[in-house]
Structure formats: structure tokens, C-alpha cells
From TrEMBL:
InterPro entries named among the record's database cross-references: Uracil-DNA_glycosylase-like (IPR005122), Uracil-DNA_glycosylase-like_sf (IPR036895)
Gene3D superfamilies: Uracil-DNA glycosylase-like domain (3.40.470.10)
Xref: CDD domains: UDG_like
Entry protein name: Uracil-DNA glycosylase-like domain-containing protein
Uracil-DNA glycosylase-like domain ranges (all copies): 93-195
Species whose genome carries this gene: candidate division WOR-3 bacterium
Pfam families in UniProt: UDG (PF03167)
Amino acid sequence: MNEIKRFIEKLKNIPGSADVFNQYRDNIPGLDIPQGASIRSKNLELYLNAMKDSPILLLGEAAGYKGARFSGVPMFSERQIVEKEIPELSHLPLKRTSTRTRPFSEPTATIVRKALREYSVKVIIWNLFPLHPHKPHDYLSNRPLRKQERILGLEFLLEFLKIIKPEFIIACGKIAENALREAGIDAFPVRHPANGGKRRFLEGLEEAMKIYLKKNAKMRSHKHHN
């Protein structure tokens, strides 16, 4: 079993609760198609394999009900699966898993993925807490993370970093920024695009990319001179 498969198996072992849903392990009749969890696990595996050589990681907060909850892929919605909106993912046989007629569409996923298409660098996206935190028994809702969820998320993030090994990390939002800082991991902070943060997110992303490209050019020229 390769390291990505092993990583996903560990994710599947996290038990859900009244206000945390493990989308890689469980299905809710009426909301999920019967094979939903295994399709989401496969979607994630396809995504991680396609993007594992990305030099940049963009870290978000948690799976949202309009995004990774049904797609299995961070900051990625069912609509983006159906419309094959992301060029580098359009060849992957990703499938949607909700029972809804219309696929879920997430504003954050739309903003972030569209913004990343402006750059020629591959960027992998992960969430600090990879599961879906929701209001008790309200499966189509989101809620802020608790401290213990941030701690658990960090354990998985450290494992994720061993597999992906990004050269540069962008922390999207305060939760991601604080978690990385507490772990002593260098990251460039940008505003989360939700709740009116789109403009500041785009400005922050542009600045982060400039810094990365400059740093990368320096490293390349240093290697060239050596």
C-alpha cells in the first residue's frame, strides 16, 4: 500500500460524532448515494496523486458542506467536478456523491480555484481539519473548529507534509495561520475569501505568488551558478 493510500486509510479511521462527519468513512441515507464514502476516498486519492509534486500548499480550515463534504477534495465542489472547471483535474475520473439533482457549489471553492488558474505553478490544497464540522445533527451546516479538532488536524497535516513536501505554504485564514505558527511551520498568511474577504484574499495570493516565484528564481540561479 503506498503512502497516499495509507494516509487515506488513517483518515477513514477517525470516528464521526453528533457534530463531526467523516465523509471518507460514512454515508447519510437521503443525503449520500450508497457508495458515497468510497467514491470520496477515491476522489481524494486521485487528487493527491495528481497534485503530489506541487511546490506550493494552500492550507484552509475544514471541509465545508458545499465543498469537500461531498467531493472529498479540499476547496472543491461537486459543480466543479461536473463542469470539469479545473484544467489540471479535468482528466481525473472524479465523481459526485450527493443525492441532489443539482450539484453543490461552494463560493470559497469557486473563488480559490479560479484565482489559482491565473498562475502557472501547481498548488495543492489541504484543510487543517480534513473532516466536516457541523452544528449538532444539522448535516448541511458548517461550524468553527474546536481546539481538540485543530490539534488532531495538525497531526494529519504533519503526516501530509511528509508525503507532499511543499517548498512554500500559504495559510488561508487565521485558523490555518495560527495552527502553523504554533507548530513552528513557516507560512505566508492570506485572508480567507469567505465573508467578504475575496478582494483581500486575491491581493494576498498575488503577493504570496510573487514571493514564491522570486525565491524560486533565486534558488534556480544559485543552482545554475554552482
